[in-house]
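User: I'm new to structure prediction. If I give you an amino acid sequence, what do you actually give back? Let's try with this one:
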Amino acid sequence: MAGILVGVDGSEHSHRALVWAMHEAAQHHVPLTVITVRPAPTRPATHVYWNMPTLEQDSHDPEVTQKAVQAFVDAVAQQTGETAPEVTVIVVTGDVAEELIRASRDHDMLVVGSRGSGEFAKLLLGSVSSKVTHHAAVPVVVVPDAQAGSS
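Assistant: Good question. You get back a string of structure tokens that encode the predicted 3D arrangement of the chain. For your 151 residues, that looks like this:
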């Protein structure tokens, strides 16, 4: 089994998705890959996405992002008391939905929160969970908002 892929962005929605995915990976003894997607950089003057190098002062260090995501994963593992047999953290740059769909090809399941807007580049916004459910190469679990079932 290739394992479970979970998309995170630091939001409460992705926190719930990570908790769910970590529990499933631990219960089924499968590897867990935690992915965060940094959007392509914008040009400062226009905020338009271009395939041009960004200005130095606008750079975002992927190592800093990876450390932040790893700290997020460690905190969830400590909070829940469980962890997968193997946990890998990856940081990629690109369109969030496209990168999650691409990464899903190497896994058995993709887990996302119902929406996002967290610290890690505001991933999983709006239609991302919808888009991945329609185009991912594997089954997708969308972990609902904690408030979704209460009315």
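You can read the tokens as a compact description of the fold. Here is one thing that stands out. Strands lie at 4-7, 32-38, 87-93, 109-113, 140-143.
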